[in-house]
Each structure stands twice: as C-alpha cells, then as structure tokens.
Amino acid sequence: MKIITAIIRPEQLDDVRSGLESYGVQGLTVSGAHGYGRQRGHTEIYRGAEYTVDLHPKVRIEVLASDDQAYDLVDIIVASSNTGSAGDGKVWMVEVYEAVRVRTGERGVAAI
Amino acid sequence: MNTGDTAWVLVSAALVLLMTPGLAFFYGGMTRAKGVLNMMMMSFGALALVGVLWVLFGYSIAFGKDVAGGFFGNPLEYFGLEGLLDTGKGMPLVGTVPALAFVAFQAVFAIITVALISGSIADRAKFGAWMVFAGIWVTVVYFPVAHWVFDFNKDSNGNATGGWLGQGLGVIDFAGGTAVHINAGAAALALALVLGKRKGFGKDPSHRPHNLPLVMLGAGLLWFGWFGFNAGSALGANGAASFVWINTLAAPCAAILGWLIVEKLRDGHATSLGAASGAVAGLVAITPACSALTPVWSMVLGLLAGVVCALAVGLKYRFGFDDSLDVVGVHLVGGIFGTLFIGLAADPSAPAAGQGLFYGGGMELLGKQAIGAFAVLFYSFILAFIIGWIINKTMGFRITSEQESVGIDVSVHAESAYDFGGRVSGSFHPTSSPLPVPHRVDEVISADEKVDA
Asked: Which residues of B touch A49 (CB under 8 A)?
C-alpha cells in the first residue's frame, strides 16, 4: 500500500481529479497549500512600495493506492497536472503500513 | 433665522459625521487583517470621546470669548452648551442659523481631525493610551487652533475678537486645511516618531493592505461627507456653497488622474489604492482653497496635489519613520500645498475674495498663508510630541512585541475581524460565567507582560 502526495496548480485540480476518477479512484483528500520552487514570485505595488510575494497558492492532494496501481496513479497525476511551465508542482509516494475504514473497520487494501 | 440655511447646515453636519466611519473603512482596509478592528476602533473611540468633550467644553474653548490673549476661548462661557439653548428669549444665532446647528457642524470637524491622526500609528498603539492622547490633544491643540482659524466672533462695535489667524491676520482657510489637515498631519508625524516603527516596517510583506475594496468604500464615503465639510462651511444654502461644491468635485477628480499618472509612469501600474489616495489628496488640498479658486484653478491644484502626494508618501521610507497609512504624505503635505496654493491662485471674484500672486496680489497673501500653515504645523507637532512622549513614559503607548505578533485585534480588543468558517476547536462561555483563565488571550500570549490596553 502506498500514499501518493501531489502539490499541483489549483487550476489543474479538476483535470487531475477526472483523470483519477476515470481510472477508478473513488476518493481523494484535497487541501490548500503555499510554497515556492522554481516559479518566480509576483510583485504587488501599494503607494509606490513594491512587495514581492514569493509563496504561491497550491493545492495538495493525497490519495491511497494499492501497490499494483500506485505507479499508474502517479503517471496519471503527472500527465494531468503538467502545463510545461515552472510551478507545476511535485508528486511523491511513500509506503503505508496500515489503513482502516472508520465506518466498517475494514483494513488494508479493502479500506482504500 | 433662515430655515433653508439651517437645513443645509444640519444635513452637512450629518454628512461630516459620516466621514469618520468612512475614514475607519479607508484606514481599516489598509492595515493587515489582524489589525483592522483596532484601526477602526481608533476612529470610533475618537468619535465618542471628542463628542462628549465638545458638548462639555470643546465648543466653548473654540468659540468662547478670547482669553489668554486670544490663544483660546473661555472654556466656561458655554460649558455644557449653557447659553446657547432656547431660554424663552429665542434661540441664539450664528449668522443665519441657530447656534446649536453651528455647534453640531463644528463638532464633527473636531471628531474627524482626531481620527485622522490614528493612521500613523496602525497596529501598535494601546487603545487606552490612544484615548488619553485623543482627549488631551483635542483639548490643548484642536480646540485652540479651531479658535484661531474658525472663530469669526465680533464685539458689539463690530471689531474682530478671536480668530487671530482667520479674521485677524486674514489667512484664507475655508474649511480646515490648517485646523484639520495640517493639524492632524503634524500630530500624526509626532506620534509616528514617539511610537517607533512597526515590527518588520519596510521589510515584512504582510504589512500590505488587506482589503482594498474597504479602502475604496471608505474613500467614497469620505468624499460624500466632504461635500458637507466644504460646502457646509458656507453656513448657508447659497451661491458660495454651490461654488465650493463644484470645486470639491473638480479638484479630487483631477487629483485621482494626477496620482494615477505618477503611478503609471513610475511603477508601471495604475492602482486602486492610488485612485482612492488621489481622491483624498485632492479633497485635502481643496479644503482650505475651495472658496478662493475658480473651478479651473481648483483642477490645477487637484492635479498637482495628486502628483505631489503620490511622491510624498515615499518620504517615510527615505527618512525612516513609520507613518503607517501616510497621514503625513497625504494630509500634512496636501494641507500645506492647498493652503499655500491659495496665495498663488486666489481669484478676487471668488467668494473668499482673496488676491493671489497670479491675480496681481503680490506676495502678501502667500506670506499670510505660510504663517497660518506653519504656525499650526509647529504648534501641533510640538504639543503632540510632548503629550505622546509623556504618555509613553508613564502608561506606555505601545503594545508588547508579543501582542504585535499575535495581532492587535485579538490581543487588545479580544476580537478578530474575519471568520470564514474554518476549523474551530475550543469552548464557549456565556457572559454570566467568567472566562476560564487559560483561554484569556493576554495570559496565553504573555503571562509576564500584562498590558492594560
């Protein structure tokens, strides 16, 4: 079992979600995030004073996957969030030891 | 008594009162999100306190009979507005309106002047200290200066008594370029120096304005109220009021354009904050001059004021003082500029009947205007600095560094301006039961540095 975490552009969220859905993923967790990388910040000007804003709003998605599907999901997320410009984000994957569906108590891959 | 004049003055007074909540929005939008309530509360606090003091003795100091060589009016003459009420012999008049209408109109000038000062000390002043400052400053600075500028009392022989700057020297200040804007701007500079800079001034990008729509709303309310401020100062529903009204439209319009042109050329972008600021800069500059300039000269003044103030707001970074919301750059600089411009372009055919340099009046009027502007500037600056310094040394004027980091709204007022329905975890206690100690913000934030702000 793996957990895939992706930091993506907010405007790519719908593409990523529909890509994952058509593969058969039934749920994912989305949260707001701020960060910086190779994408340059933007400048705001108030009464002639420049403020450089370096942190960009991003969306963080997390999805659990079984070992045999995990690499497919990573590929889907990368393909659907790629615009070719700096600031597209990152995707990574980590081993998960246990997962439990709270309502039923199902464990392991059955809980995904 | 003229009922038309009375109606206009009373409506104008209500318009000018609305300027103070308008100012609260204008200033509040320019602070960070965690300081907006305190910013607005400084305006509302000034409103409450000055309103009370005005009725008690403020009007009397400003418009009572000369004492101390004309430095201020007798504070006891109209104490509690005694002597201005209808005593069965008919209501006392000021000009063609009941004296009480004049009391009302002048009251709201005192209120907005004090509120204007608060823009220079955003995010860091103890509320209690601000209120103490407001009460002392308005008593020893504003009320006397209003006496110098706005008092046009005459004795029974028709000789001028009171108003040594206005009717004595002949300084033209129709609606308060000196008494309101230079006065407040100079005090704001003094307080910015006394309190020092906010944490992160000139470095921390979180100090950028948090809500520009509030700023635009505030600028709109200010402008709306300013028609009462300027045109109401005619104290009558007449030609002079109409003349002034047009200038109060023309000058700020030109000033917006001036400010935006500077921004476009210098920064590459015309900003909404620039438009709001330009409108206020133009209103400040036209305030003393609205009865003295033709509409075309008013637009020239407005355009130049927009340019000058757009450049002046950068001075604080060069000189290193934290006039947070640019009271100096807009009100002090704009007020001086408008007051002096009268000496150049006053048209003898305008209601004020001044003769400026361009109309063959020579340097005389310009010299008088300079005396008026700088007398008020120095008096207000010195007194504000002394009052602020004493408050800072005794009760302390600044909140603690920890409170500033947490945000002045939560640490001083125990409120937060915005709740977007995010995660909440905690408890709620109806007012009948005391707040549990661990949840008191000041205890959590700094258990050893309690501030009775």
From this structure: 314, 317
